[in-house]
Amino acid sequence: MQKVLQQLVELQKLDTRLDELIEKLGDLPETVKTLEIQIKNEKEQNEIRKTSIDENATMSRSSSAKIEDLNEKISKYKEQLFLVTTNREYDALTAEIEFNETAIKEAEDQVLQAEEENERLIKAHEDSVKNIDDMEKKLEEAKGSLAATQKETEEEKAALEGKREELVKQIPRNYYSVYRRVRKARNGLAVVPLLRDACSGCHNRVIPQKRVDIYKKNQVINCDFCGRFLYAAEQEEE
Hints:
Elements: H1 2-24, H2 28-81, H3 87-170, H4 173-185, E1 191-195, E2 198-199, H5 208-216, E3 221-222, E4 229-232, H6 233-237
Parallel strand pairs: 1-4
Antiparallel strand pairs: 1-2, 3-4
Helix pairs in contact: 1-3, 2-3
């Protein structure tokens, strides 16, 4: 049992150091990931804007051509007014002129709406391009910082991970399972020393019999309150 406890103590040391190396990276990995997603989303939105701009421009050209065609028709109808001989013909031509004038007004509204929409979209596109440029610069800086920090720690991290892998193979599965569960639940700390008759993890006092067993080192003891593995402080020195 003493060997198992020593292995758990060593495993905790390795994991604590690995946590420190990960923490050294800070929020750089998340920053890189977030910027990449934001840039991707912004570029997708710009593609949608460009499509809308093209569609509005096409509609504006079509409406402008329609207006020109309608104006030509109105001019012809007005010329024909001087040639009609009956009120019925006059009323029919007048109705056609009014109908086409209404159609022109609708087409003009469409042109105006398309131009206003494109003005907004073009401004949004220009702002977005600038924003993307700024984000890409920040992304490059974050990637550079991340790569530099990873390079500083990669050798030690690889060595620690190698030791950890070998150590885990030696620890009985049931103890390792408890270790993982407690470590996850207790903010990364699953093995702690007994200090002043109390668990140094949760600071609750350990009952006398368990303290005796901890100092005898003939059993693997867990804290009754937090579930952490407990060991005698001097064992760490050993």
